[in-house]
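Attaching the record inline, Q. Sequence:
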Amino acid sequence: MDTASERVNTSRESNPALGLSLPGLAQRRVLAVVPALLVFLIGALAFDRARDLVADVREVNRSHAVIETSDALLTRAVDAETGQRAYLLTGEEVFLDPYRGARPDIEAYLKMLRHLTRDDPAQAVRLNTITGLVAARFALLDTGIALRRSGDVAAVANKERLLVGKRVMDQLRFAVADLHTHERGLLDEREDAEQRSVRNASILIGVALVLALLISALVNLTFSRAVEDRDAANAGLRQVNEDLERQSEQLETQAVEMEAQAAELEATAEDLRSTNEELNTAGRTAEAARDAAENARLQLEQVLENLPDSASVFDSEWRWTFINPAAKRILETLGIDGNRVKGKVLWDVIPQLKGTKFETETLRAAQENRVVEYEEYLPDLDAWMENTVVPASGLLMTFTRDITRRKREQEGAELLAEASRVLASTLDFEKTLEAVARLAVGDFADWCAVDLVQPGGGIRQAVVSHVDQAKIKWAKELNKRYPPDYAGPTGVGHVIRTGQPELYSEISDEMLVAGAKDEHHLEIMRELQIKSALVVPMIARGETLGALTLISTRKGRRYGEADLALAMEVATRAAIAIDNAQLYRSALAASEAKSTFLATMSHELRTPLNAIIGYQSLLKEGIDGSLNESQLAQLSRIRAGADHLLGLIDEILTYSRVEADKEIVRLEDERLRPIVEEAVAMVKPLADAKGLALRVDVPDSTLKTDGGKLRQILLNLLSNAVKFTDRGEISLRARLNGDAAEFFIADTGIGIAEENLQRIFDPFWQVEQSSTRRAGGTGLGLSVSRSLARLLGGDITAESKLGEGSRFTVTLPAHRG
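Structure, as predicted:
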C-alpha cells in the first residue's frame, strides 16, 4: 500500500492538475478498449463461421436429396419395365399398374432434380441426358404394349427390339450412376467443408474464450496492482474500476452471445439428426421398392408356373433357381425328379447334355448376353423341341416348346411332295417300285418293303429298301430263307386281303417270339432291334395292288395315328404310280402289237398291189394287143387307184416305223431345189386339175439332211394343201435363216378352226370328220410329217383362220454343206 501511495503521490507531484500520470491513464484506456475490440472481433468471426456452417449443411442436404431422388427415379423406371414385361408375358392389364404409376413419379423426380442442380451446369447436362433416355425407354415400352395389345406376339419377342430396349435401359443406369458419382464427389467435398466449419468454429470460440480469460486476468492483475499501489483511490482509479466493471458486463454479454451461438450449433446438430431421419426414410422406401420387386418376381414365377411350355431359370453357376411343371414332366421322362433339382447344377443332373447343341447354344447366349433360339431333335424322346435361351441380370432362362407335331406335319408334307415329284417322273414299272421304297427310308422309316399281288393272286416281295445297301442284300437272303406267311391272320397278306392297315406302335419281344419260325430266326429279328412298324394297303381304282411295310429301329421312335395317316397317303400315291406304270406297260405292249400289225398288213397289201401295178403297165404297153381309148382310160383309173393305195400303205409303214423308233436317218449333202421340184412335180397334176396356181421360191442351196424324208414332208404338206383348196393358189417358199432352214407352205383353202390347230397333228385325225367327207386319206400325213421333221431335229407349226386358208412352217437344222 505504501508503495502504491508513493506512486500516486509521485504522479500528483509531476502533474498536480490531473492527479494521475498520463502513461497510467493511457494504459488503462488501452486495457479497456482491447477487450471490447476482441469481443466484437470474436463475435464477427463466430457469426461468419456459423453462416458458413449453415451453408455447408444446406449443400450436404442438397447432395443427399439429388442422390435419393435419382435413386427413386431409377427405381420407378425399373418398376415400369417390370410391369410392362409382366404384361407382355400374360396380357393382363393389372400388371400395367406399376407402369402407369411410374410415369408421373418420374416426371416429378426429374423436375425436383432440375431444381436441385440448377447451379451445377455439369449435372444439368447429365440430367438432360437422363430425360432423353427416360423418354426413349418409355417410347419403346409403349411400342411393346401396343404390339402386345394388337396380338403381334412375334414382334413383341423380336430380339432386335428387345436388345434396343436393353441398351436404352443400360444407358439410363449408366447416366444415373454418372450423376451419382458426380454428386457423391460433391457430397464428400461438402461434408468435409462442413466438418472443417464445425472444427474451425469450435477452435475459434475456444481461442476467443482463452484470450478473453487471459485478458480479463491481465486486466484484473493490472488493476489489483494499481489498487495496491494507490491506496488512496481517486476519481480516475474509480473510473478505471467502473470501466473494468463495464468490461466485465461486456464479457458476460459475450458469454450470453456465445451461449446463443452454442444454441445455434445445437440447432445445426438437430438439422443433421433430421437429415439422418430422412436418410432412414429413404432406406425404408428403398426396402419397400425391393419388396415390390420381390412381389413382381413372385408374379413372374406364377406366370412361368402356368406356361404350357417348359421353363427353367439358372444362376451364373448353372444352378436351378426355378423350374415349372412342364419342365418337370420332361425331366420325369428322363427318370429325374423335377422337384429335387433346385439348387443343383444342370450339367451334374443331366450329364448327357454335355457336348450337345443345348450346351453350345446356352453358353453362347450367356457369353454374348443375347436371346438365342434354335430347334433340336431328342432321339431318346423321339421329339422335336424349340428352345429359347434368355439371359437376364446374372440369370439364364430357358423356354422349351414341343414342336414334334408341327415337324412331323412338315416332314409329312415334304415327303408327300417328294413322292408326287418322284412318282410322276417315270412310268417305268421297275423304277417306280424302287422309287416307292426309297421314298420312305430316312426320317420316316429305317426299312421299307413293297409286296405286290401277282396276276395269279399270289403275293411276292417286289422290293426292299434301307440306307445301307449291304443290309438290303442281307434282307433279300433272309426273305428267301424265311419267306413270309401271307396267309396268316396278321401282316402283309391280311392287309392285302382286307384292305385295312395294321399299326404296331410298340414291337415287344413276345411279338418277336410269336412271329419267329425257329431260334435262329428269332435271334436275327432281335438283332434288327425293331421298335415300331406299319403295314398299309396300296389301293388304286378300288383294287388292292399290294402293301407297303415301314419299320423303325430308332430308339424312342414310335409310330402313331398321324404316321399311319401319312403312310396311307404315301401308299395311295404309290399305288396310283404303280397302276399307271402297269397301264403304261400294257399300252406299250398294245402299241407294239399295233405297229407290228400295221407293218405286216401293209407288207401283205403291198405285194398284190405291186402285182396289180405291174399287170396294169403290161396291159397299157400292149403286150396282149392294142387297147382302145376307153380301155386305156380304165387302166389309168386303175393305176391312179393303185398309186393312191400305195401312198396310203407307205404312210402307214412310215408311221409304224417312226412309232416303233425304227426309222433310220441318213444325213447327206442335198441340194434344195431338186428335192422341192420333185415334190412339186408330183402334186402339180392334181393342182392343175383343180385350176390352182402353184408358186415356188427356193434358193439353190445345199443342206446336210435326209433328202427322202424332206421330200416326203414337203409332198405331204403340198398334197394336203391341194386336197383342201378349191380356188386360189398354193405357194412353197424356202429360205436359210441363220442355223435353220425354213419352208413355208401356204394355201387359200378352207382353213382350220383355232381349237383344232394342235389336233391336226394327231394320228388318224382329219379336219373333216364325217363319213361323207370330200377328201380321203388315212389322217396320218401331218402326224408322219411332224414326226419326220422332229426326227431330223426340227419341227412343224401351223397357222390358220377358218375360211381364209392355212400356212405350215417347216424348220430344220441347216447343216450346210
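The radius of gyration is 59 Å. The longest strand covers residues 383-392.

More tomorrow.
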